[in-house]
Specification:
The chain has 461 residues and is an alpha+beta fold. Helix content is 42%, strand content 20%. It has three domains: 4-181 and 251-276, no CATH class; 283-394; 403-459, Arc Repressor Mutant, subunit A (Orthogonal Bundle). Strands 1, 2, 6, 7, 8, 11, 12, 13, 14 and 15 form a ten-stranded mixed beta sheet that branches. A three-stranded antiparallel beta sheet has the order 5-4-16, with no helix packed on it. Helix 8 crosses helix 10, helix 13 packs across helix 15 (429-442) and helix 15 (429-442) crosses helix 16. It is elongated. Bound molecules: zinc ion.
Length: 461
């Protein structure tokens, strides 16, 4: 889609214990306004104090994304009037963001450049009840990092992949908890030659693809009617209906008043702090790929697929720790696990799936079940929380490597397939594979293929 231009602004909430400028807890009671103080409610005279951990997390993110780090940490007030913001401004970074530049590499190898990464506080939440609007400030002051890309993506798939890669990086950095933190995106999208539309508040990478696909087809049909987008606008994403809805003509940045926040002291970000943070960065995808290839002799593209996905990499490393053969684990995770997850539209982070996959890998690797049986169970266990070992036992799925039993089956296959046996004797290898297939069929996929191979060669002589 050469004529499509997409840019993303993404908000990631950080997994700190307390809020960005006060010591109220991020998690705990859900009673409205129970985790608040004069700072996060925005009472006059209250003074914000920066959470050091939040800065540490934000710095890690900037360094992992290869951003250039600002020499000073400067916060500004973004002034607007809205009931979710008690003090009538949001503390954010405007003039000098913490990180500038940086990039994320997509699965295709295409590099998406970043404009900036900055820190800011989340506003409170509005709750609509009939004709009344209530405000809950529990969320107010949650530390966020905003990541802004250059408008360099050209399809909904690229936008989805971008978010997925970003999600993996923040999971590796352990600054984001998938169960309690949020990742929200606004997407700018335009067709070359027309104005752009901003879609607000898209949750997660599946929805970003859907929202953009919808918006592209909407804009294309406007163009084909001779209209196209003539004025910038902001639309909301309705995930239930699968449509974008007009909200307002886009305000320009100039509509906000920004001033430096003099309540917060300007902090020097010295080289010492940067170097110290760098030292404590965990192993990130690029380094993992190199190590997987070097230490485990994985194929480079297998290593890339696994390392770039936090959950797949976690599954792989766990399997290796449990003694599963690395090459087998990588091939199986790359092909079989991905196939089943795609097919059943599941994510590996869904509760029980990772543990089950690991158990299946171990059973296959230790020849307790055959690959064929593994494939069958895998499809079941992404949809059902079952006890894998018990299921295998109850359904009599353990692989047969008992030679007496297998010999009987082999002899039966030889008897039933005389023609194939003669062809194999005449030098046709394909016929041999056919007989192996027949044995597998008779054993209902439970025969261990390597044992069958040896037995058949011995029996047909
Ligand atoms: Zn507070």
């Amino acid at each position: 889609m050469d004529d499509i231009i997409i840019g993303i602004e993404c908000h990631v909430s950080l997994n700190t214990k307390t809020k960005l400028f006060c010591s109220c807890a991020l998690e705990g009671s859900e009673d409205p306004n129970s985790r608040t103080c004069d700072v996060c409610v925005g009472l006059p005279g209250s003074k914000p104090v920066l959470n050091k951990k939040a800065l540490d997390y934000a710095l890690k993110l900037c360094l992992a994304l290869d951003c250039e780090i600002a020499p000073e940490l400067i916060f500004s007030r973004k002034i607007y009037f809205y009931p979710d913001m008690g003090k009538n401004y949001q503390i954010t970074q405007y003039e000098v963001p913490l990180g500038v530049g940086g990039h994320i590499k997509l699965a295709s190898g295409k590099v998406i450049n970043l404009t900036r990464v900055h820190m800011e506080e989340d506003p409170g939440a509005l709750i609509h009840q009939g004709n009344t609007v209530l405000v809950d400030y529990n969320r107010s002051g949650t530390p966020l990092c905003e990541i802004v890309t250059e408008p360099e993506m050209s399809s909904p798939e690229e936008a989805r992949d971008f978010l997925k890669r970003l999600l993996s990086i923040i999971q590796y950095l352990q600054i984001f908890d998938i169960d309690s933190c949020i990742i929200k995106a606004d997407a700018n999208i335009s067709i070359k030659g027309f104005e752009r539309v901003e879609i607000k508040n898209i949750n997660g990478f599946k929805d970003i693809q859907k929202a953009l696909e919808y918006e592209i087809s909407r804009q294309r049909s406007l163009v084909s009617e001779g209209k196209g987008i003539k004025h910038r606008e902001t639309r909301g994403w309705d995930s239930d209906k699968g449509i974008t809805i007009f909200q307002r003509s886009k305000e320009l940045e100039a509509d906000y008043g920004y001033i430096i926040d003099t309540d917060l002291v300007i902090t020097d970000i010295t080289n010492i702090i940067v170097e110290e943070t760098k030292k404590h960065l965990p192993e990130l995808p690029d380094d993992k790929i190199i190590r997987f290839v070097k230490d485990f002799k994985l194929k480079k593209d297998d290593a890339e697929v696994i390392a770039n996905d936090f959950d797949l990499a976690h599954l792989f490393e766990k399997a290796i720790d449990d003694g599963v053969n690395p090459i087998f684990a990588s091939e199986w995770i790359r092909r079989e696990v991905s196939r089943v997850l795609n097919y059943s539209k599941k994510d590996i982070d869904e509760s029980f799936i990772k543990q089950h996959l690991l158990e299946v890998l171990e059973l296959i690797n230790h020849n307790k079940i055959t690959r064929q049986t593994g494939q069958r169970i895998m499809e079941l266990l992404v949809n059902e929380d079952l006890d894998v070992k018990k299921y295998v036992k109850d359904n009599n799925l353990e692989s047969v490597s008992n030679t007496d039993e297998l010999e009987k089956i082999c002899l039966e296959a030889i008897k039933n397939n005389k023609q194939a046996v003669d062809e194999y004797k005449a030098g046709n290898e394909k016929s041999f594979n056919f007989i192996v297939g027949q044995v597998m069929k008779l054993s209902k996929g439970k025969a261990s293929p390597s044992v069958v191979n040896d037995l058949l060669k011995k029996l047909i002589k």
